[in-house]
Amino acid sequence: MGEKITQIGAGLAGPLLATSLARLGYHVDIYERRPDMRKESIGAGRSINLALSARGIHALKEVKIYDQIKPFTIPMKGRMIHDIDGSTHLQPYGQRKTEVICSISREQLNKQLMTLAEETGKVKIHFNKKCTHVDLDKETITFQDTKSGRTNVFHASLVIGVDGSASAVRDAMVESGKLNCTYEPLEHGYKELTLPPGRDGNFSMEPNALHIWPRGQFMLIALPNLNKAFTCTLFFPMEGPLSFETVVASDDVIKLFEDQFPDALGMMPGV
What we know:
Blueprint: E1 4-8, H1 13-23, E2 27-31, E3 50-52, H2 54-62, H3 66-69, E4 74-76, E5 78-82, E6 88-92, E7 101-104, H4 106-118, E8 123-126, E9 129-135, E10 140-145, E11 151-155, E12 159-161, H5 168-175, E13 188-195, E14 210-215, E15 218-224, E16 230-237, H6 250-260, H7 262-265
Parallel strand pairs: 1-2, 1-12, 2-8, 5-14
Antiparallel strand pairs: 3-7, 4-7, 5-6, 9-10, 10-11, 13-16, 14-15, 15-16
């Protein structure tokens, strides 16, 4: 089987899918708009840490790469709920010690997945290639080189869109009438923060838990990292009395944390 497949997008799903296809004998060309994050210091897009559940781990095991990913993970045995008064209680994910989910850096996972895909010898990733148009009838894809600005058109008979919420492949299918799509923006956004290691260099909180500060219409979560810090994410309304619209200045942020996340504030001097 030597058929070539074209994929748009080298995020998490793209390289994993390409690895699976390579194991079936296919050759895969992946086109990615960003530079190679393994060589250049760039953001990983949505850099929220991931919680790998049994389903995600199963997908990695299916293509025989979980053993290479596992060293970058931290097992979390349950949700550590932080009440507004500072008290905490653990909600276990299961009854057995093995019933855990795993924290992993999105960027680190993305880097590993790209490398492991290339190591199959059947996957090539083309970076700095932004897909600007897909012609389903002519079976062509137009790419713009994000460094030079030059545009090229390639023929591709089999294309898989793995290019996220702003998918050019999906847009082409909608324009052709072959797909209906409804776009509904979320009412919440997020802000990523860092809870650093303690003064002794160790974790400031229980490392084997997913920490959650539930507060009704919003919440703060924290996942452990290998460097003993926690990646925190504040999920917050975009509009409203208490939202990103009203919490703007530094004093607003401090007041929010004093009122809603006092125990977290004490561990986040740079908030």
